[in-house]
Amino acid sequence: MATTQLEAAKNVQPTKRSGRSYPVIEGIRRGETPAPVIHETVVSGDPVLSIENFCLYYSAAKALYDVTTQVPRGKVTAIIGPSGCGKSTLLRSVNRLNDLVEGVRITGDMRLNGTSVYGRDVDVIDLRKRLGMVFQKPNPFPMSIFENVVYALRIDGERRRKVLEEACERSLKGAALWDEVKDRLSQSALGLSGGQQQRLCIARAIAAEPEVLLLDEPCSALDPIATLRIEELIHEISDRYTVLIVTHNMQQATRVSDYTMFMYLGRLVEHGTTEDIFQNPRLSETEDYVTGRFG
Ligand SMILES: Nc1ncnc2c1ncn2[C@@H]1O[C@H](COP(=O)(O)OP(=O)(O)O)[C@@H](O)[C@H]1O
Ligand SMILES: [Mg+2]
């Protein structure tokens, strides 16, 4: 996208432009749930994940309202929106991490490669194996670099040294970390820098060959250089994996993603290609949010 627009996104203060009306956002603030604006480009392809009338409540508090859309296969999709709008909740719903929170109730469903995520006979452990998750703060296990990467294979009972070594090398190369750690695979992962630890967490996630990689603000605890490396990495792995990434950083969304979902107060507002969402959005709300005029 044009530098000028990026600069605008950085510099404009989030004040409401006079005379501009926000019918969709105002409706949402009154408690309505308008149908999301889903661009044809989102639904024309083959979805890896479809989200169907999905609602989530934390006890009495509703956090997601009737979210319906599709996540295109083999692409990077960014979820953007103001803090507290439900980005992490939506991401964690894909691998049912919210099941662990007391009082959570959902309605609707999601389908991962056609199979229900919330169906009655779903084995949640098996489901989670099909998804890789990386959190805001790197969370390497207190064990060697090698054992971190092959963790999922070990859990599955893999004991053949050669298989483990190949998976380790392939995943570390995939996470652009191999050259930095190949001579110290037996050392503790806790000795790595923050950026290296986060790439290790990505290596650990991709070692299990997930159907979708879920990233929740993976750069928010990193310095700008480590952030750039992770962004490059997301770009590199995007030809092999589907990535769903939450980010509050709009420049990051434009740098790494093919598609963008804009959320507000638990509603999906607009979903299109990142280029369209940032340069040619259908709603004035989306335009003003991505250029920093409100939010
Ligand atoms: N574990 C939880 N228990 C209760 N409420 C929660 C929990 N996690 C998030 N929420 C609430 O759900 C809403 C959405 O939060 P979240 O998904 O974390 O938003 P975001 O990631 O966009 O900042 C917020 O109002 C938040 O306070
Ligand atoms: Mg969040």
Please specify the SSE layout and strand pairing.
Elements: H1 3-11, H2 23-29, E1 37-38, H3 40-43, E2 47-58, E3 61-72, E4 76-80, H4 87-94, E5 104-112, E6 115-116, H5 124-129, E7 131-134, H6 145-149, H7 151-155, H8 161-174, H9 178-181, H10 194-207, E8 212-216, H11 224-237, E9 243-246, H12 250-256, E10 259-264, E11 267-273, H13 274-279, H14 284-290
Parallel strand pairs: 1-11, 4-9, 4-10, 7-8, 8-9
Antiparallel strand pairs: 2-3, 2-5, 5-6, 10-11
Bound molecules: adenosine-5'-diphosphate and magnesium ion (MG).
Task: Provide a descriptive summary of the structure in words.
This protein is α/β, with parallel strands linked by helices and 295 residues long. It has a domain at 139-209. The chain contains 14 helices and eleven strands. Helix 8 crosses helix 10 (194-207) and helix 10 packs parallel to helix 11 (224-237). The two termini are 21 Å apart. Residues 1-16 have low confidence and may be disordered. Bound molecules: adenosine-5'-diphosphate and magnesium ion (MG). Adenosine-5'-diphosphate is lined by residues 58, 61, 63, 81, 83-89, 101.
